[in-house]
Design brief:
By secondary structure, the chain is an all-alpha fold. α1 packs antiparallel against α4 and α3 runs antiparallel to α4.
Length: 111
């Protein structure tokens, strides 16, 4: 039971924060310019959008679903230039997934 609690907290709090900092906070801006710190969060480029989303998908077991989710999270950042929007969207996705896994026993989704 403790493992399930830790897993849910990690999936809903820790993972979204870490992954959004890495993929939207760093990688997407790094694909725009070498000095990524100077690139505003809301700055769009196709390379950054596709590159960070594909890399996000590659990190996840279900590549297509992960890539599509990465695109949604990128759009969340581009809308207002706020990384928090992507973190909240990612956390909501993971919370819904956790609820589904716990309700149905589909543990393979957490592999």
């Amino acid at each position: 039971m403790l493992w399930v609690v830790v897993r849910v907290i990690g999936a809903v709090v820790t993972v979204p924060l870490a992954e959004e900092l890495a993929f939207r906070g760093y990688l997407a801006r790094r694909l725009v310019a070498r000095e990524f710190e100077r690139v505003p969060l809301g700055r769009f480029s196709w390379l950054a959008f596709l590159g960070s989303s594909l890399a996000f998908g590659a990190l996840h077991q279900r590549f297509v679903a992960g890539t599509l989710a990465g695109m949604v999270y990128a759009v969340a950042v581009y809308r207002r230039g706020a990384l928090t929007d992507a973190v909240v969207a990612h956390a909501a996705t993971n919370a819904l997934l956790a609820f589904y896994v716990l309700a149905t026993g589909s543990w393979f989704l957490w592999e």
